[in-house]
Write a structure and sequence with these properties.
Oligomer: single chain
Distance between the termini: 42 Å
Strand content: under 5%
Radius of gyration: 23 Å
CATH topology of the largest domain: Fic-like fold
Domain Fido: 140-287
Number of domains: 2
Pfam family, one: Fic_N
Number of helices: 16
Structural class: mainly alpha
CATH architecture of the largest domain: Orthogonal Bundle
Protein name: Fic family protein
Strand order of the largest sheet: 3-5-4
Shape: globular
Number of strands: 5
CATH class of the largest domain: Mainly Alpha
InterPro entries: Fic/DOC_N (IPR025758), Fido (IPR003812), Fido-like_dom_sf (IPR036597), Fido_containing (IPR040198)
Length: 399
Amino acid sequence: MNTESREWPAVAYETLPWHRSGDDIGSRRSIKASIGPYDAAIPPKIATLDVTVPSGILAEADDATNEIARFDAAVGSLTAPFSSILLRTESASSSQVENITSSAKQLALAEIRRSTSGNARLVVANVRAMKAAIELADRLDAESVIDMHRALLEESDPGITGHWRDVQVWIGGGGLSPHAAAFVPPAPARVPELMDDLMEFTQRADIPLLAQIAIAHAQFETVHPFPDGNGRTGRALVQGMLRGGRLTRSVIVPVSAGLLHDLPRYIEALTAYRRGAIEPIIEAFVEASFAAIRNGWVLVDALQATRDRWDSVLVARSDSSVHALKTMLLRQPVVSATTVAEGLGVSEVTAQTGIDRLVDSGILRQAGGGQRYRLYEAREVLEALDAFAARARRSGRGA
């Protein structure tokens, strides 16, 4: 391990030639500004760097780590399907960071392929990426990150999946060139070696896990290894590291919802990391963890209360399929007879009978669809999920 310096190295830069496409569309001024060389980042290799963090920040990170573990254990012991519910909320929050928003209803419709919302379909793709991250948690390497990205974009943009980027990308400053960008990630030729280095860093066992995750995420976003989907893939990697580090074992802690709670701080921390400061991104992840757990508990309590109310208004035999249907509605709050039959392994006649009982009890209501494909929604669940999203978007600054 390198112990020569206790300072984290800042990103360096190199000047590269810019080759215009020749068919650029823009004002004469903007086209003129896109001529000539540009500066691209050279991120430091971090696999063997010494990680030294002030004791106060490490103590806060330790407190956050303990809260994550407690939340995971407590919620994981509940009988409701909170693993699926929190996976969806984390995926939706991570997408919201990129201004990809969807209501809970549209997301539920997209999951049964009945939504016309492009954003909702993108969030469902993010659910797949998060699932891939969890499934690959025991073998996090460069190929597993490519698999997460493939799960995210294989339907909407398959041409850029399956490999690292081979084009220059930039953040901000318009689409003509990187000259006016807020940040220009490294040239594509540098990406494979940097990602191998990053994934080696994620395998270290000598760094407090939450600090390691925060640094790895900042490095990932600095390398920006794909043409698109970097933010969502990078936050999926966070979940993979939480599970791989055995901090979460049962459910997903919606860290992205916590980052969304104070988005300016998150962006500022990424910028500070590139200037050689790791403390801000660790602090951002610490606060995001606390905010995510607070918000997560409100959601869990709301859904528990909803299920208790349902149990009080609908009495059925212990072997009745309506009990399984009530549980299904917590993770899939918009259903049809077909999706219930498939989800519970019963006939469509039995599924429709169960749906009708829940409609009569006020648990479900018809939400659209024709005579042959009627849709039903559990409004209380949708409202609880939308309330979670609203709390996540509400900035914690000044509170």
